[in-house]
Amino acid sequence: MTERSKKPARVRRLGPGPLVGLLFLLPAAVLLGVWVVYPIVYSVVRSLFDAPGTGFVGLSNYGTLLGDDTTLYTIIHNLWWVVLAPVVVTVLGLVFAVLTERIRWATAFKLIVFMPMAISLMAAGVIFRLVYEQAPDRGVANAVLTTVASPFSSEGYPDARPRESDALTSRDGAIVTTAPAQPGQPVLIPIVGIKQQNMPETARPAAPAAPAQGGGLAGTVWFDFSPGGQGTSGQIDAPERGLPGMTVEAVQDGRVVASATTADDGTFSLQGVNGPAEVRLPKENFSAAYSGVNWLGPAPVFAPELGLSIVTLSIVMAFVWVWAGFAMVLIAAGLAAIPRDALEAARIDGASEWQVFKKITVPLLSPVLVVVFVTMIINTLKVFDLVYIIAPPSVQPQANVIALEMWRVSFAEGDQGLGSALAIFLLLLVLPFMIMNIRRFRREAS
C-alpha cells in the first residue's frame, strides 16, 4: 500500500461554507455598528469634551454629574422606580398568570391585559394624562373616586360669606349670629359670594320660615343677591333662592342643643330650644365638595428628602398598566411547563392551594420570575416617554429620571458634553442587568 493511499479521505462539508454565512450576517452587523456601536463610542468621546465640543475636559463632566444636586435627586428617583415598578409588575404578572388557569375566559382575559403592549409608551402617556386630569368631569380616576365618595360627602358652598351687617360674623370658618336669637323671632341669614356652579339644582326661591312649634327657632338661609342690583340687602326678595342642605345649629353655653338642615327654599326649624341661643352655620357647610386626588401634583408621599411624590406613583401605575401583560404572558408560559404531577402529588399529600403555590409553583417559576424582574429593571432605568408626557412641566423636576435629565441637559440646555456623560452613566447602570439576562439565557440553552 502506497503512502498516498494511507491519507484519510477529506470530509466534504454539507451545505454552504462560512463565507456565505458571513455574507448573510453582514447587513445585520452593519446596522448594529451604525445604530449601536457607533453611538456608544461617539457618546464616550463626546462626554470628554465641553458643551460646544471644542475643548477637551477629560472626566470633569462625570465629576459635575456626581456632584450636582439635581442629578443626585434624579438618581434617587430612578432608584424608587427600580424598587417599585419591577416588583409590582412581576407580582401582578404572577397573579394574572395563575388566575388565567382557573377562569373560563382565560384567552379573553389575557388579550385584555396584554392589549396595552400593542400601543406605544407615548400613546400610553397621553391616555394616562387624560386619566389623571384633576377635574372629575374629564379625569377618569377622579370621576371614579368622586362617584364612590359621593354618598359619604356633602356638597358645600366654598367661598361663601355672610352679608356685611351687624347681625352676622365669621368665626373659625363658621358663620354665627352676633346676638342670641330669640324664640318666636325669625332668624335671617343672608349669604353672598356663592358661584353659580356651586348653586344646587334643587334650590327654590327663598321663603320666610314658619314659626317653630314649641318655642323653637326658625329662619331662612338664602343667597342674598338679585341680578342687576335689584332688591334690598338683608331681606328676602322674589328672585333670590334659598340654600338647601345647610347644617344649622343652636348653641347655648358653648354646647349644641339643636341641629337642623335647610330645606330647598332655605328654611329651617330648630326644635326644643328654650331661651336665647346663638345660631351657627358650621364650617363644614363651606368646604368644597370632594373632587378627587391631585394625581399630578408635587406633594410628597413620604419625607421630601426621599424624593417620592404622588406624581411618581401615578406614572409608575401607568408603567405597570403597560407591562403587566408582558409579564403575565412570560410567566404563564413558564407555568405551563411545570410538571403537573408535582402539583397533584402535593395536593394528595394534603397541601393547601396556598402551600402548593408558595412551596412548589413559585420555586419552579423562579427562573422565569428572575428574567421578568431583571427585564423590568432595565425598562425602568430607561423610562422616558411616560415621564415626559404624563408629568406637567411644573412638576417634572419632582418626577425626573435619568433618561429625561439626559434629554433636558442635552437639548433643552444645549450641554452635549454633560448629556453624553449622563448617557454613558445610564448605560453603565443598565449593562450589569443585561449581562445577567444574557448569562441566564445561555445557561438555559446549554
TrEMBL record:
Membrane topology designation: Multi-pass membrane protein
Pfam family for this entry, one: BPD_transp_1
Name this polypeptide is given: Sugar ABC transporter permease
Family listed: Belongs to the binding-protein-dependent transport system permease family.
Keyword Transmembrane on entry: yes
Matches recorded under PANTHER family: BLL4140 PROTEIN (PTHR43227), DIACETYLCHITOBIOSE UPTAKE SYSTEM PERMEASE PROTEIN DASB (PTHR43227:SF8)
Location in or out of the cell: Cell membrane
Predominant localisation class: membrane
Transmembrane segments: 20-41, 79-99, 111-132, 306-339, 360-378, 417-438
Domain ABC transmembrane type-1: from-to ranges: 75-437
SUPFAM superfamilies to which the protein is assigned, alphabetical: MetI-like
InterPro entries for this protein: Ig-like_fold, MetI-like, MetI-like_sf, UgpAE/MalFG_permease
Keyword annotations of the record: Cell membrane, Membrane, Transmembrane, Transmembrane helix, Transport
